[in-house]
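Repro:
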Amino acid sequence: MARSQIGIWFIGAKGGVATTALVGLIALRKGLTTGAGLVSQLPQFAKLGLADWNDFVIGGHDIRPERLYDEALRMHTESRAIDAEILAGCKKEIERVERNLRSGTLLNVGQTIEKFADDASRKRRETPRAAIERLQDDFRSFIAEHKLAHLIVVNVASTEPTIDADSLPQDWKALDKLLNKPGKGPLPASSLYAIAAIDLGCSYLNFTPSLGSTPKAIGELARLRETRHMGYDGKTGETLLKSTLAPMFANRNLEVMSWVGHNIFGNMDGKVLDDPTNKKSKVTSKDRLLKDILGYSPQTLVTIEYIASMGDWKTAWDHVHFKGFLGTPMTFQFIWQGCDSLLAAPLVLDLVRFTERAWRNGDTGVLSFLSSFFKSPLGTEENDFGRQFQSLEAWAASLK
């Protein structure tokens, strides 16, 4: 059991996932909800001495002007996702967390995300180096004020436009030099947050399809600073089912000829993904695992459409066309509907608890045993959900 205070710093702190995770954390502390949806509450992890919900202090960066409680309230009024009594029981704590929020950076987030930012964020002019130093000052102040033993930075912000990691310098020394040049530089905000956190020895988790700590040079920085990171893109819905069902087709030697998935949802993430440049990152992440699992590339199509009336409720229709014995074509179809933030928030809390335990264990570098939580996990080529989860269980067993 952790005895010291641990910081959770959300990038995108006013978004649906962060506010839902915050409400969930407070509700768990107060006994207003159960551990349903939390992997870390499973029996096989009961003896790990994971941090208690009371051990965490929340802060974060955001670029939007809205109040934190208003976003949490929207999850009740618009998305019908959070019970009114639970929300009322958490209001005072949510408002206290508001005082721990700071202004983020808009460097290379794309025009779609920029238009949701407050005036001060849009008018700010800073180099990548200046942005990193400002973010680090926020981390240091938060750590000092709350006497934190460790800080875990979690990116749950909106999806940035795609940037090819291979186009960047492959070693930290070369990438570090680029941060001093005038202008915006090549790195998106998610990677600047990653550098700011990792350079201070904080842990970094990227729950989004944005670049984050993916570049090899940032991975090198994590090793140099003897800290840890993992990502990217949380696996919460349709892709979770793909990574579970695709091994079934492979193990029964049923040839998948095509796999088509249509997704609709109406939250802030949906607004951002309505921009094709932002959507590309998400589609690529959702579509990459079938080849790895099946060993060949069936025809695939993934669509993501913004439907405002859906709110936070994401619906996916999938059609799988496969070939059976004697070459006979057959079909498998499913519909998945779930509240996007309620699917993601418990996984974020799980990741924080497991990462904190890894910090106490002295684990550094890529935390590949957390691969079951991500669509495109770093440090492993394994995409079979069952095998990924076995990796988490094996890590837990090694600690016991």
